[in-house]
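Researcher: We plan to redesign the surface later, but first we want a full-length starting point. Tokens attached.
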């Protein structure tokens, strides 16, 4: 009986308009954050939630979760302000990450001098599977920590991007 109810709920969610589907996933996202008891800012008009998580040792960063354009978006600024003289190396490191990432994209914003990691997923997945909200948030968080440490290594130690990526791949394969 429980299986039938679950199946009928999925069918019902699929028959709704895109606006209603966004509203359902938005409510699921708010419920997920509430149940996790995270300190979050909820912005109803923007369908956005902002939460501070530790991205590096003793360093917090604002993680933003949004529902728009029939997608579930996860964003975090990896580096708030980067040294302009490292722009070329930052682009190279971002390109390396974008070549190996299965989920998301690393964006170097030259107008405002920040680096961002952004994941987006079609709304259909979290609409049908409530657990996918947790999966995307966890996946985004874990990957962002690796990206942060790589970019910090570049900005602090001025290590070559190819060496940073090679070390990260070696570490992940073990």
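Model: Full-length starting sequence:
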């Amino acid at each position: 009986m429980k299986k039938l109810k679950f199946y009928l709920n999925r069918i019902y969610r699929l028959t709704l308009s895109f606006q209603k589907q966004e509203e359902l996933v938005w409510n699921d996202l708010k419920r997920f954050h509430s149940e996790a008891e995270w300190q979050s800012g909820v912005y109803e008009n923007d369908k956005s939630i902002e939460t501070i998580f530790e991205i590096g040792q003793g360093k917090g960063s604002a993680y933003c979760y949004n529902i728009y354009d029939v997608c579930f978006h996860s964003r975090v600024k990896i580096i708030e302000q980067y040294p302009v003289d490292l722009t070329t190396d930052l682009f190279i490191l971002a390109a390396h990450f974008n070549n190996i990432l299965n989920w998301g994209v690393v964006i170097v914003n030259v107008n405002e001098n920040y680096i961002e990691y952004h994941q987006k997923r079609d709304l259909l997945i979290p609409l049908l599977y409530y657990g996918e909200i947790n999966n995307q948030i966890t996946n985004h968080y874990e990957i962002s920590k690796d990206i942060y440490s790589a970019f910090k290594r570049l900005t602090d130690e001025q290590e070559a991007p190819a060496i940073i990526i090679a070390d990260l791949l070696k570490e992940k394969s073990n």
